[in-house]
Write a structure and sequence with these properties.
4-stranded antiparallel sheet
Amino acid sequence: MVKLTKNERAEVVSGLSGWAVCDDRNAIECHVTFADFNAAFSFMTAVAMKAEKMDHHPEWFNVYNRVDIILTTHSAGGVTAKDVDLAKFINKLINDKCLS
């Protein structure tokens, strides 16, 4: 996988609702708030299943109804197409299920 340039990362996140380029590293991030813990955990479970199939796992943090997600491809040293694909899946999941 080839990592995206700084300009490519900026272009990608401009087309991904809710995502931003991390200030301190070569990664993209998203912060999502759900109605309750059950909705947040259900979301995380769905993302985990997709991530496992992709063999590409997010860095994330969960407290009650909030999920913070960071995507980067460690083996490439930065954001790649895998991260973009997973971010698009995450956005589709949020939009289709109206979880947030």
